[in-house]
Amino acid sequence: MNIKTQKRFALFNVALCKNRNMFSKGQIVFAVLFAISFVVAIVMAFKKERAQHQKNFKGVLKLLLGFILFILLLFVLKTYLKS
Q: Over the chain, what is the mean pLDDT?
């Protein structure tokens, strides 16, 4: 490791130590609990409406496949015409 890299790591460690107490323990606990509860709520809502999604969005995969194929076609044409 050269001197320049060592200085960068030293500056990074100093910055890391200064910002170590950026959040209090209560804020971290709240953030973790909020994230967990948000994910649980989203999963429950998705499961509740799963049958409705399957009914309303029948042809979505075909449409997605069509878009992907169109983009690939454009890429191939661009590559072919460029050379």
A: 84
